[in-house]
Write a structure and sequence with these properties.
By secondary structure, this protein is an all-alpha fold. It has a single domain, classed as NCX, central ion-binding region (A middle domain of Talin 1). It is about 80% helix and about 0% strand.
């Protein structure tokens, strides 16, 4: 019965995610703002809320910081692999080379993940009103808020200029449909994450390598669905905005989970597996690969080298996860 529920909810996410991509691109056109801005500010947060629910549940309900950090770093790794996967599946000759998306979000993500990974290795933590957390968590939260409001401000002027001239009824209709699709994805994503956790527990995969892969795929299904649909309609900027924004949001979730845990700071190897540090390093390597690829404007004739390299780093991360599971 639980597998039927799982498949049903997954199908709902696929349908709603496909619709969300189309509506997000339409909303960006109606408001005359970039697809990457919509992906970074809206779509990425929507598709990452299942990770938020899972990670906070890991520290609040079961007191497992390693599960929270592993979920977020694993999702970051998988999200970056989605870019390479879509490039290979749809033979786009290098999606990263054909985008108008700015490299700034990638640089921000690099700063955020490096900050969180470095502070996980520091022995000292901050004590505040009985709470213990890493100073890097506060830095990550501050960086994310700065990025979010700055991106919002950059897109707001264009929205203000065009919203008057846009078809009001069409805009209202699109906003309502977008909101409905977003609510469906969030609710279904959280339900799917809980169902996935129950399946892993019942089948004995909860603490295994296969279980980790299974749960990572479950929580990243919204990002995967939105990205595939975005590539199919040629909305590369929307896809990359969603991926990069989701990764930044996942790092933010790690910082928030550190604050919420309270009784002690996240620390390697006290309550965080050292292997997760290497997985974070693979995410950094994949991000640097993406930065180099975005500088190239010539499409690859067959398979883009960056896609193969990113998949290699992803497999290295999986191998490390397997060895440390």
């Amino acid at each position: 019965m639980i597998w039927i529920e799982f498949i049903t909810v997954a199908a709902v996410i696929i349908l709603a995610g496909s619709r969300l991509s189309v509506l997000a691109e339409k909303l960006a056109n109606l408001l005359n703002i970039s697809s990457s801005t919509v992906g970074l500010l809206l779509v990425s947060v929507i598709t990452s809320l299942p990770e938020l629910s899972t990670s906070l549940g890991a520290v609040i309900e079961v007191g497992r910081p390693d599960l929270a950090v592993g979920n977020n770093l694993g999702s970051d790794l998988f999200n970056l692999m989605i870019i390479a996967l879509c490039d290979l599946l749809f033979r786009r000759g290098g999606i990263l080379r054909q985008t108008r998306h700015r490299i700034t979000p990638l640089l921000h993500y690099l700063v955020m993940i490096i900050a969180i990974l470095m502070t996980l290795t520091l022995p000292d933590s901050v004590a505040f009103f009985g709470m213990h957390f890493n100073i890097g968590s506060l830095l990550v939260i501050a960086i994310y808020l700065f990025i979010f409001f700055r991106t919002h401000r950059d897109g707001q002027s264009a929205e203000t200029e065009t919203s008057v001239s846009a078809d009001r009824s069409e805009l209202t209709k699109t906003v309502i449909q977008f909101t409905a699709a977003a609510v469906v994805i969030v609710v279904a994503g959280i339900i799917l994450a809980r169902l996935g956790d129950r399946i892993a527990e019942r089948t004995g995969l909860e603490q295994s390598f296969v279980g980790s892969l299974f749960l990572a795929l479950v929580t990243s299904l919204p990002e995967l669905t939105v990205s595939i649909t975005a590539v199919r309609i040629g909305a590369f900027d929307l896809m990359l905005g969603n991926i990069f924004g989701s990764n930044m949001f996942n790092v933010l979730i790690t910082a928030v989970a550190d604050l919420v845990y309270g009784k002690e700071a996240f620390h390697i190897p006290l309550n965080i597996s050292p292997g997760l540090l290497f997985i974070g390093g693979c995410s950094i390597a994949m991000t640097c690969t993406a930065l180099v690829a975005m500088r190239q404007k010539k499409r690859a004739r067959f398979i883009a080298w960056e896609s193969l390299l990113m998949i290699t780093f992803y497999l290295l991360g999986l191998f490390t996860l397997y060895k440390t599971a």
